[in-house]
Amino acid sequence: MKNLGKKFAILAISGIISLAASVTAFAASSIKSVKINIKSDGITVGKDRDINDVTVNVSGSGYSIDEVDFMEMGTAWDITDIPKITVHLSSNDKYYFSVYRSEDFKITGGKFIEARRENSSSDLYVDIELPALVNQVSPIETVYLNNSGQATWSESKGSSGYQVKLMRDNSTSAIGGVQNFITTSANVKNLLTKTGTYTLKVRAISGDGAKFGPWVSSNSITVSQAEAAKNYNEGLNVNLQAVQNNTQTVPNNGQNTQLQGTWQRNNTGWWYVLSDGSYVTYTWKEIDGNWYYFNADGYMLVGWQNINGNWYYLDLNSGKMLVDTTTPDGYYVNSSGAYVAR
């Protein structure tokens, strides 16, 4: 009887322990929502895949990040890639995941694909799609500027064009403003009109025109006083020949009046002054049968320019828009001056 009593006592104690464990497990808190914040700006076209280019943070209680990895491995990123990652979350003690539907997740910087719970819902694997690289650009590797003002740079994959600016000495202002090109070369000799040390900076424009790559600097060149004077005089002669005897017809109270226009120049560039003292800004202007484009500061632009979604080529010396011809770098522009792919 004594042994039987001991057995009953042991069974009773075991039952109490089991019940306590069940109560403890039953008391674990459910994680009903998950917040994930992602930054993936480090992923760029042409760059090797590195998970360190992706930063993931979570906000909320009861869980933390265990691991992050790409769903698809490979070499360098391509313009057609859509990066995807898997975020492994682990629940803390006394917590478990009950989430699995898309509405249970709040994700910034990515798009929810699916989620999986494992290990009695203590682990959660979330698959997330990151922004497509279609509007990303690969880095420009090299930029070279020679003493004749000819500049070349390496191609950026995914770019629709390039922005170029010429800097002198320690100035933070671009000489002649920022210019746009669709080629990987430019001649800026007409801007080397002052003694000093010059550097060219180039950055890529994304396919949608909304993003830019980092500025990449060229080697430095030094322009002497004699070279600067020569460049200035050559540019002066070309432009004066192109715009001699200009007359401009402008509306005046519904009637056209002939106004004599004049070109002016300083170390930054050329601008066109009307007889009333005003000057043309941020628009096209037809002068003596040729079209010119002036920026917001009133300076005439040259080279390739993206204006209202179309590319135009403005002669590097005179600034006039080329029409119905092939540009010096081999691209065709139609009768309106717009670039047309062939």
Automatic annotation (TrEMBL):
Record-linked Gene3D superfamilies: Cholin Binding (2.10.270.10)
SUPFAM superfamilies (alphabetical): Cell wall binding repeat (SSF69360), Fibronectin type III (SSF49265)
Entry's transmembrane regions: none
Record Pfam families: Choline_bind_3
UniProt xrefs under InterPro entries: Cell_wall/Cho-bd_repeat, FN3_sf
Protein name: Cell wall-binding protein
